Amino acid sequence: MSIAKETKRDERLDAIFHALSDATRRRIIAELARGSQAVTELALPFPISLPAISKHLDVLERAGLVRRAREGRFQRCHLTAAALDDASAFIERYRAYWHTNLDQLAAFVEASATPARAKKAKK
Least C-beta-crowded within 10 Å: which of 64, 114, 115, 122? Predict the structure, then answer.
């Protein structure tokens, strides 16, 4: 992969993980996973102002996680799950690495603990 493509992918992942780093934005995503909603109805369960919700939506839009579309007088928000696929692929790439390392660590700890247990049992 070229440096330019890697840089673009890294920037996209930075935006996604930044967007997901906030609890309010994660709850907005959870709400939109149940179906698209108007901004005003999306804001109802949150104890923050409509302008604050709009700022959160801006972050989610820049990350490619949410799309807003005008429907008459209202803006309707839709979840764009494809961006989550990018984050999931990144996490999956390293999941095998961590599982392997943690399995090796567990085996080492168990092997190290076995001789100590044997000594205690002889006493």
Answer: 122
